[in-house]
Design a protein that fits this description.
The chain is an alpha+beta fold. It has five helices and 15 strands.
């Protein structure tokens, strides 16, 4: 992983792409888990909650090997970035270097439900702008991996918005190929201004899928209450 490059893109644009994080066969294997209800703790139909259209399922513990390994492997580099962000904002909190240690903190605080998820969109489906907050403890970065090939669907772009104080929102649209991952903030990120570093609020979503089917793996590093 080019962690300095990822950190630089996050600082400049609010997101960073990791090309080909997963091979095509790995993507298809994860996509094909979606009908396996025994692997999931919850199914969310977005339209019922005003979240958009489409659906997603939260994995239950134990996570599938690929998901667990990705979560463990990506966390240390992201934790280093998150700690640098907190330092720049003058916050004392620091994240431990190993994901298992951070999960223990979550679980001790009553956040013990798994949060990695698979998302499924068909034609006409979309995901409203939102933040993935599941309790008081929030790890500030998350990852989404496109599991579908670009020829499997049209539309369905990953969208990120940034609201700076007293300014209009800025939008970033990210095009991904199968196996590509996008790293982005959960709720806010630091930005350097004329009077020092300040927070900007971030939200993410998915634009309307115009045709076909789009599947995504979401990796969130804090657990839910």
């Amino acid at each position: 992983m080019d962690w300095p490059g990822i950190q630089a893109e996050l600082s400049s644009y609010g997101c960073a792409v990791i090309p080909q994080l997963l091979a095509s066969a790995e993507c298809l294997a994860l996509r094909d888990l979606y009908p396996r209800d025994d692997l999931f703790r919850s199914r969310i139909v977005m339209a019922r909650h005003g979240f958009g259209q489409g659906e997603y399922k939260y994995f239950d513990y134990p996570l599938p090997d690929t998901v667990a390994e990705l979560r463990t492997a990506l966390y240390p580099g992201l934790a280093a970035i998150a700690n640098a962000w907190n330092e720049s904002l003058g916050e004392s909190a620091r994240y431990p270097p190993v994901h298992a240690a951070y999960l223990k903190i979550c679980h001790d605080a009553g956040q013990a439900r798994a949060t990695p998820l698979l998302l499924a969109y068909g034609a006409g489906d979309y995901n409203c702008l939102h933040q993935d907050l599941y309790g008081d403890l929030v790890f500030p970065l998350q990852v989404a991996v496109l599991l579908s090939a670009r020829g499997d669907f049209t539309g369905g772009e990953f969208v990120l918005t940034e609201q700076r104080p007293r300014r209009q929102s800025r939008v970033e649209v990210v095009s991904l190929d199968q196996g590509d991952a996008v790293v982005f903030p959960v709720n806010h990120r630091p930005v350097a201004g004329a009077r020092g570093v300040y927070r900007v609020t971030m939200r993410h979503g998915v634009s309307r899928v115009r045709s076909g089917c789009r599947h995504t793996l979401g990796i969130i590093f804090h657990d839910a209450q």
